[in-house]
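Sample intake sheet
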Amino acid sequence: MNEHKKVLLAGDEEINLVFCESCQIAELTIGGVSVRLTEKSLHQVHTALHEGLMKLSVLKATAVSDEFDYDSLNLH
């Protein structure tokens, strides 16, 4: 039986990211929900969150202008 060797990478009690060196799996926990991710999937989540936050920032920054072309943001 393989003993789990988990390392806290980031976070606190409510939101955290733990990596199991034995399994090579990251576990993202938000409240009562945990998601197990491969390293590749973890990078994909990072990319999606980063892109979403960037678009949200632009959306909020341009919300004061009625003339802004929201379609140019390519939001789905």
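Comment: Helices lie at 39-62. DSSP finds one helix and four strands in the chain.
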